[in-house]
Amino acid sequence: MNSKTLNSFNPDLPVHMSFSEHDWQLLAQYWYPIALARDITEQPLGTMLLDMPLVIYKIDTEIIVAKDACPHRGVPLSIGTNDGQGIVCRYHGLRFGENGKCNRIPAHPNHKISDRFHLKTYAAVERYGLIWCSLLAKKQDIANIPNMPHWDETTYQQLVCPQVDLKCFAGRQLEGFIDVAHFAWVHPETFGDPENTEVPDYTTQETEYGFSADYISDVGRYPIGLDQLGQADFQWLRHFEIHLPFTATLTIHFPNQAKQVIMNAASPITARSTRLFAPICRNYDQDLPIEDAYEYNLKIFEEDRLIVETQKPEYLPLDLSIEAHFPADRSSSMYRRLLRKVGFSPLFAA
Ligand code: FES
Ligand SMILES: [Fe+2]
């Protein structure tokens, strides 16, 4: 290693960065879901957030999220196994237990273990059936996780859709979720109406964590074929809450006070790959199989895949002069303006 690279070596940054260091330092302060809580066991699970390889494992009830690299020679711990007292590295058998602490070095069983052998761990909490993590938040700080309306109410049922992996930037995906002009074009097989293309004007409002938008239209959310269940004149309110940078909740107001909330939490694995998590809660249809709801929502996300995976440029232009806009883009223009305002680059994740 020459002196230049040695000086710039920072163990807290990913070895391979697909983001600019400026954007990475900002992004790493936020919280993102990294796994479904139901997938976490004692056995290590490997994943990635913002280019940082992570390992997740459980000791008793403690969930540990750590850098997926052994402090000894950099072998991923996600290829090791838990022997009941911690996860064991495949290379020389170092074992990591509570808090990521090394509790065994087989080559020197009687030596005191130096702190240098402990794993680098990250702040993590479970919420909405997901494991959330922040690479730069302090563990003692309150986890700044986006709020999901109605989730904790007893009259609501909670569902956590299987995750969806997309080859796109999280900013493009989130913007697609809050786009109200594409229903007729991309979703005619699920809820959109190809004859209903005009977008009524709507409003947005800045909030302390991003902004909200209220969109009222006659585009329903029942699966097509159900003929809007006799509610031909019903005006549907879609209430969006956007939490910068990549999470939004959508509350859909159905007829008869029925409501469904979908959280679209786009987790940035790299600047070009995104893992989408989608908890849902609803106060109706609770006797129907949850697999049907998973299937329906996954079908909608699959319809969006073609769009988000082919958009060019792949980054999100926060400089509004780069792409053309029409009035129905009120939300996406606001999204881009606010991302710029909190300091992300004009060519976000270019
Ligand atoms: S690399 Fe993990 S124990 Fe040596
Ligand atoms: Fe869509």
The CA-CA distance between the termini, in Å, is 28 Å
Radius of gyration: 22 Å
Poorly predicted runs are: none
Helix and strand content put the structural class at alpha+beta
SSE pattern, N- to C-terminal? HHEEEEEEEEEEEEHHEEEEEEEHEHE
Could you tell me the strand content as a percent range? 25-35%
Q: Give the tally of β-strands.
A: 21
SS element count, helices: 6
Global geometry? globular
Q: How confident is the prediction overall: mean pLDDT?
A: 94
Instruction: Give the cofactors and ligands.
Output: FE2/S2 (inorganic) cluster, fe (ii) ion
Helix content bin: 10-25%
What characterizes the major β-sheet?
9 strands, antiparallel
How would you describe this protein?
- The chain is of the alpha+beta class.
- The chain is built from six helices and 21 strands.
- The strands form five sheets. Strands 11, 12, 13, 14, 15, 16, 17, 18 and 19 form a nine-stranded antiparallel β-sheet that branches. The chain has a four-stranded antiparallel β-sheet with strand order 5-6-7-8, with no helix packed on it. Strands 1-10-9 form a three-stranded antiparallel β-sheet, with no helix packed on it.
- Strand 7 and strand 8 form a beta hairpin.
- It is globular and about 75 Å long.
- The model has no long low-confidence stretch (mean pLDDT 94).
- Bound molecules: FE2/S2 (inorganic) cluster and fe (ii) ion.
- The site of FE2/S2 (inorganic) cluster has 8 residues, from loops.
